[in-house]
């Protein structure tokens, strides 16, 4: 009887919280329909409304993934996305397990958010407590997450093993309105947090010692960065899958570093490259009847190769300017500085 009361309560609370985002989704549907009438593209046909949500999710990931990935790449933490993706997989397994065993009725993506954020904090705490390098703590968390997910999936509890492929490899057609609304909420939270903490994150990224001397809590901002990474990973997992999600954090940023002159310019260029990969990848996957995540990654790698070639050409012609100094603006905490990007 208690389960019968808990599930509707959870569903009702979640739906109430996400209600404004459903209005955004309805507005997005209207925009896509207008674009369909203008272009006649089959991809945008109202018969394939799930593609509207896939495109929206892809565009959001194309912004937040390189936004966070730029900080990670410059801190040599490119592989943390892989570690958190595997723990997010464990979070999905936890959600499916709870739904199968006690009929909790919770979205696996929500449990993935919780588990991935806990894992992100665990990576930082292991490094802080044991003085181990970050790659050691990432390896421990990655192994633990994947082992936990595999164990729960191996338990035959009411069809628990059904539907795992969509989480491993992503699927354009399985982005439900609820999951799209959750992604929009994550998108707003990530962008707002980076906007508010940009100076501190930039300072910590390029010189932790100087940041600590200036009064910035390095550990606290490191934790913020890994938690934001966890949110990006869970959001991108819907269309990219656990196995490929780390690519969107790294590949566009790697391409942007070949063309950019500053940290800020690198963020904007990486976003453009990521959006190009997402839109081309979704289009090719739809018309080629292929899985979206792998195609998006292949397109992103192709874009990266083109960026490398263009960067080499610029260097050969002598038209590539010397990188500019990135200025960190004064904030309330008094964090002031200048770093080479």
TrEMBL record:
Keywords: Membrane, Plasmid, Transmembrane, Transmembrane helix. PANTHER family: ABC-TRANSPORTER METAL-BINDING PROTEIN, METAL TRANSPORT SYSTEM MEMBRANE PROTEIN TM_0125-RELATED. GO terms for biological process: transmembrane transport. It comes from the Archaea. Belongs to the ABC-3 integral membrane protein family. Gene3D superfamilies: ABC transporter involved in vitamin B12 uptake, BtuC. It is found in: Membrane. Its main location: membrane. This is Metal ABC transporter permease. One of its GO terms (cellular component) is ATP-binding cassette (ABC) transporter complex. InterPro entries: ABC_BtuC-like (IPR037294), ABC_TroCD (IPR001626). The chain crosses the membrane at residues 12-30, 50-72, 84-102, 108-126, 138-158, 178-196, 227-255, 267-287, 293-311. It is a multi-pass membrane protein. Pfam families: ABC-3 (PF00950).
